[in-house]
Every structure is written in C-alpha cells, then in structure tokens.
Please model this.
Amino acid sequence: MNGWETCETEDLIKTEDGKYHSFLWTKTIHPSTFERISTNRKCGIRLHDSYKVVDISYMAWLFQERPPEFLVSFIEENPELAQRIAIFDLSGVYIGETICRKFNETESSVFMEFKQFLEDNWGISFSSINEMPALTL
Model:
C-alpha cells in the first residue's frame, strides 16, 4: 500500500520517501519519560539477526487513558515537536464512545491514513484535543 514498508519487530512504517513514522501505544506516561522519548529521534530496529538505528521523522502517541494535559502544552510550546508528534486520545473507545481527541499538526500521510481508517472502519470521529474540555477530577 502506497509503497510503504512495515517493520516486523516495531510499530514503524517507512514511507516511499525514506521517512519513518512511529506508533507508541501507552496507557499513561510520566512527563520526563514523554519528554525524553519525544525529543529523541533515534530508534533501534531489529533486522533479522542484527540491529539498525534509524531516524524517526514522525511519532504518534496512542493513549488508552486520557493523556495528561501537560503533553499538549509541552508540544505546543515547541513548534519543531508539533510538526513531528501527534497525540491520539483513544480513551473514549475504551468506554464505548465514538468520539476521540487528537492533536496532529504533522504532515504525516501515515497518521492521516490511520485516522481515516479509524473513521471509516470503526465509526470513530475526532475532535481537536483543544476543543474538548479538560479532564476534571
């Protein structure tokens, strides 16, 4: 499809232009861990019996639970990160809703295709993470 390649051991897709798009599935994350992973563009991937370090052009964080609000603030404060990192809050799906939140200012065709797949095949619609009210405890 589209000349893309998938990685056998990681949730990575390499597009025809040689850019790697990473999907990171998580329930929740500590701020320092998020910052460390999001600012590091390198990732080791396994190729048969050896490893290769690749540069990650785009990174999508997929959350099972509503992500902490600081994540969006952290990305919005750094335009370079906003161009490479997307956040998909899929927590609504886990409680039976069909509306989820997203933050995606990237130009990643892979992430756009992922969003379209969820809309077309699962009936999920997305609102901007900034258009929905903050989580209150």
